[in-house]
Amino acid sequence: MTDLRAAPDEPEPPAGWRWWTGLSVGGAIGLFGLAGLLRNATKTMPLVWLRWLVGLVLVHDFVLVPLVHLTGRRLRDRAPESWRWPLQLGLVASGVLVLASVPVLVGVGRRTQPGNASVLPGNYPLALAGVLTVVWLGVLTLGISGSTRRRRRSPSPGPSRGLRANGARGPEAGPPGRRAASGCRSPGS
Predict the structure, then answer these.
(1) Where do the structural domains in the chain lie, given as residue ranges?
(2) What pTM, to 2 d.p., does this model score?
């Protein structure tokens, strides 16, 4: 008789409880921000925000996403396997950070409220450079640790490996064969 319950190792479907929880929490935060934007419309200028939001969404969909896709394909072909996902993560995080920083880098608030010294008082290019430095140090750390873990897992041939005295290869000659899922050696090893 077949057990119809899902195996515990199976991945959760994309529309599972985590997705709904994320949608609920993210939606609540978005609605809270929108309510504040509209409640304080004289100070926040919702039409300016709407124009920036539409512009950023269009730049995201028509510039950032295609660049990420093409770069990911290039990385798949050229980067070592242990570096692929850290590099992709770093590129995606960097693109989103730069895109989200455009309004403060351009100084949108300064133009909408001239003479107000408290609007955007920080050094935002320096702050963005600092955050991007942290992101890429993380990428470097993940890439190096993945490379060293991979090197430790792959066996290196010792001095006793190789051809026997009579020139024939024996079980100790060369790296061990791959093991199949059943635990048996693959054919030819």
Answers:
(1) 46-111+121-152
(2) 0.56
